[in-house]
Amino acid sequence: MASLNRVTLIGNLGKDPEICYAADGAAVCNVSIATTNQWKDKASGERREETEWHRVVFYGRLAEIAGEYLRKGRTVFVEGRLKTRKWQDTQTGADRYSTEIIADQMQMLGSRDNGQAEAAPAAPAGRAKGRNGKAKAVTAAPAEDEGADIPF
Fold this sequence. Notes:
Layout: E1 7-13, E2 18-21, E3 27-40, E4 47-59, H1 60-69, E5 75-88, E6 95-109, E7 127-129, E8 135-137
Parallel strand pairs: 4-6
Antiparallel strand pairs: 1-3, 1-5, 2-3, 3-4, 5-6, 7-8
């Protein structure tokens, strides 16, 4: 039987990215992304809104790009897979669980904080223009390709 673990989000960053480096030197970047669902309440006729927060983790070169270009409030497209981690609370000793999205693709959307349209620096973080002018996705590269200077 086949299975699929795939997540696609478009949302806004709740805070600036937190980037750190593993013992082997690999970059790890954590972000919180908010997605909002809006609807009109049938009973009262008023607009309702519900915001869901998602933990997203980038690894390797994609983590470096996210840490450099993403900022609080920025709209971003992320694609990846779900992963649940188990850990113990240091105070109570109780088992805790944390579900996060391990991102393998990212594209910045919207405009920069200064209100200008997207410019060249944003392209490496999400989509890069190919020779034919069409956009291609930037994905997390395997560990052996992380030495490349060009992120796409």
